[in-house]
Every structure is written in C-alpha cells, then in structure tokens.
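User: Sequence recovery, please. Input:
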C-alpha cells in the first residue's frame, strides 16, 4: 500500500507519544478515531476521500498501533484528554469528530466536556449504550460466545500465516479483509524474542480498555451538535465458518442475527434517538461492523451529504 501521500508523525501529549496520519486538505478538520485494536491506518483508503473539502487526520489511541503502551491511562477521562491535548498540539480549535466502534467513548465524552470544540459528530456503528440491559442481553444471547474455535491459540511465525489464521478463525474479518487491514495489522503486531507474531497490546491493556468500554454510560443527552449515526444491522452470513461450525451451530447463528439481534439493536438505536432527537440515523441492512470498508460507497455518500449540509 502506498502511504506516501499522507504524513505519518507523532506528538508527545499527556505524558505519552501518540501516532497519527495526516492526509492534508483544506477546510474544517475531520478527525477520525478508531475502534478497539485498530490504528489510524485502518482509514487509509476511506479518510483521504474527504480531503478535497476537509483537512483529514486520523489518530491512533494509546495502547494501539504505533502509539505508546503505558500501563495506565485507559479510563474515559484520560483517553478523552489525549484527544484534547492532541488537538491543542496541532493547533486545532474545532473539529468534526468521526469514530468507529469503541470511539463512542471519546466522541461522547469529549463532546460533553468540550462542546465548543466540536462542529459535528459521525458515529460509525458506534453509538451504543453498552451498560444497558438491552445491550447486555444482545451479547449474552449471541451463540458465537459458546462456539469453540479450534487452534485459536496456535503460534504463528510469519505475518502471512497469522493473517490466514485470523481470517479462518474469525469469518467476519475474512468478509472485509483488504490491503488496509494488512497495513493496520502490520502496525499492531510484533515478533516475540522466539520469533512468534504477537499482538503489541498486552492483556492488561486490553482488559483495561474493555472495562472502560463496557462501563461507560454515553452522555448522549448532552450532545447539541449535528450528528450522523450509521448503524450496521449485522448479517449472520458474515460469521459462518465451514471450518469449525456444525450445521446446527450455523442455524443458531443465522437465527440470532436474522431474528433476535435486529430487534434488540433497534431498541438501542431508538434509545440514542430519544436522547439526541436531532440526530440523523442511517441503518445498513445486512451490514458489517466495519461499515466504512464493507459498505464504503454508501457510508461515504451519507457522510459527505451530512458534512456538506
């Protein structure tokens, strides 16, 4: 992948070093924040498409990618302060914030704390209250939780073998795997002294991030700026495996995603809509969580219409 068209750089903020990508462009700053486990590189195909009208930047959260991995600082206040200091360092007074998945934490809390610095918000399958009983029920009912993946802890000594295993073990990744995911993963793994390919993110950091993600109550009612919510109503076929699932397990997965999850997901969407009645909501039928990759043109068109309105 050619990344020569963008600037890859670091800033020292909040006592750590954070990595970011800057594709340039003129106009308001469009700042992309990533989902759990992802780096700024995940946006390398999608984000620069907006550089004709915006100054486009993507930030890699602490504990991810090429940013630092401190032992602490994974609570909502510190993660949000990282964003504030990053903007200060780059001289960004105001920005349009775009976030995928876990970035709901930073988008919501930053807007609650610093509303004057946010122009608009775009949630990419992100605006869910994970503390709600509905969300917890949706997670508990998911049959994927009870399906054992054989070889999931096997060692791999080449990047190529590691990718093959990821795609085999997690069919939803295989459904969207592309050059940007290769590039993103290259910045998220490393070789151990024994030569194994391992995740850069220590288990303690992953646990701390998950604790924050699952305990944060979104401050949606404090959001006054224009909002675009793009939701992926997940399709079950993205999660089916011929390698390790029985016919009965496949039937359970399809039944959950076709008949159970959508109604619960729409309750969560309605909850956000009640809190932010001015938000524009777009639902992608048979959608993928990585909506900006799998449904790139749809998401691009909806974002562009919203951002330029």
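Assistant: Recovered sequence (309 residues):
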């Amino acid at each position: 992948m050619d990344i020569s068209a963008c600037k890859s750089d670091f800033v020292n903020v909040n006592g750590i070093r954070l990595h970011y990508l800057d594709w340039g462009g003129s106009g308001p700053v469009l700042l992309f924040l990533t989902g759990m486990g992802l780096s700024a590189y995940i946006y390398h195909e999608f984000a620069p498409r907006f550089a004709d009208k915006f100054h486009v930047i993507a930030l890699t959260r602490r504990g991810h990618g090429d940013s630092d991995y401190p032992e602490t600082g994974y609570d909502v206040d510190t993660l949000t302060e990282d964003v504030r200091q990053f903007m200060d360092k780059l001289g960004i007074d105001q920005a349009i914030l775009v976030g995928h998945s876990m970035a709901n934490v930073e988008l919501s809390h930053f807007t609650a704390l610093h509303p004057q610095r946010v122009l608009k918000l775009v949630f990419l399958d992100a605006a869910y209250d994970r503390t709600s009983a509905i969300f917890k029920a949706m997670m508990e009912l998911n049959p994927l939780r009870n399906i054992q993946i054989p070889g999931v802890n096997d060692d791999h000594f080449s990047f190529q073998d590691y990718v093959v295993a990821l795609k085999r073990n997690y069919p939803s990744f295989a459904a969207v795997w592309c050059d940007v995911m290769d590039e993103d993963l290259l910045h998220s793994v490393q070789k151990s002294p024994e030569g194994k390919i391992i995740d850069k993110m220590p288990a303690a950091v992953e646990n701390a991030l998950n604790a924050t993600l699952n305990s944060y109550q979104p401050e949606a009612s404090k959001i006054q700026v224009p909002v675009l919510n793009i939701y992926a109503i997940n399709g079950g076929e993205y999660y089916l495996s011929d390698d390790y699932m029985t016919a009965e397990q496949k039937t359970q997965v399809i039944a959950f995603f076709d008949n159970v999850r959508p109604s619960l997901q729409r309750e969560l969407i309605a909850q956000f809509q009640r809190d932010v009645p001015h938000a524009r909501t777009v639902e992608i039928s048979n959608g993928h969580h990585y909506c900006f990759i799998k449904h790139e043109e749809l998401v691009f068109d909806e974002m562009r219409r919203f951002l330029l309105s």
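The CA atoms of residues 93 and 191 lie 39 Å apart.
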